[in-house]
Design goal:
This protein has about 190 residues and is α+β, with helices and mostly antiparallel strands. It is about 25% helix and about 30% strand. The chain contains 3 helices and 12 strands; from the N terminus they run αααββββββββββββ. Strands 1-2-3-12-6-9 form a 6-stranded antiparallel beta sheet. The chain has a 4-stranded antiparallel beta sheet with strand order 4-11-7-8, with no helix packed on it. A hairpin with a 2-residue loop joins β7 and β8. α1 packs antiparallel against α3. The longest helix has 17 residues. The protein starts with about 20 loop residues before the first helix and ends in a 12-residue tail after the last strand. The N terminus is likely disordered.
């Protein structure tokens, strides 16, 4: 687990990337805009997670495009480029919340571990939507409803946790309403 507390206010990886420099990132943002038009009036939480896994999981054009753009972004160097705990835990903000994304932020987090590994403890004031992009087939992200391989997690408003990975490498492509995430909460509070 990382002991360095970086926050959106102190972390340059939260500044967003230059979409003109990375055309694949622009394609991801454009595809996210379409997705957000379908999600904007839905609330993150268990019901949305179930809905996403049933209707937007592997095989769905949104999911497949997100995976393709994220994996290309790894090769191009704009996905999860800022280390939080060495190469196994990295993050970068693709785009800050703005009108074109219906005020969702778009962020990528790389997590890699065969054994269970925990990242930075944090809270979701307005919830979170995570697209789990597996780089290794057996990789899983722990959501509020349990372990999830390829598909989605969606912690609800007010939830908090350590993000956890096991079984290999993955990228969490996550969307935050209003870009809200809090790193000042302590476990057990």
């Amino acid at each position: 687990m990382s002991t360095t507390a970086t926050t959106p206010e102190t972390d340059p990886a939260f500044a967003g990337i230059d979409l003109d420099k990375f055309p694949t990132a622009r394609k991801l943002v454009d595809r996210c805009k379409d997705f957000f038009s379908e999600m904007e009036n839905l609330t993150p939480g268990a019901a949305l997670e179930c809905h996403l896994n049933k209707n937007y999981g592997p095989g769905n054009p949104y999911y497949e495009d997100f995976c393709k753009f994220v994996k290309t972004g790894l090769d191009e160097g704009w996905v999860a480029f800022a280390p939080l705990d060495g190469p196994k835990y990295r993050r970068s903000r693709v785009l800050n919340p703005c009108a074109e994304t219906r005020y969702f932020s778009i962020t990528t987090v790389w997590m890699e571990s065969e054994d269970e590994y925990s990242g930075q403890y944090h809270a979701h004031p307005y919830g979170e939507i995570n697209c789990v992009v597996c780089v290794d087939d057996g990789a899983q992200l722990k959501g509020m409803q349990g372990w999830q391989g390829a598909g989605w997690t969606s912690p609800g408003p007010g939830t908090h946790h350590y993000p956890q990975v096991r079984g290999g490498s993955l990228v969490a492509l996550f969307f935050l309403p209003a870009g809200r995430i809090s790193y000042d909460i302590k476990p057990g509070k």
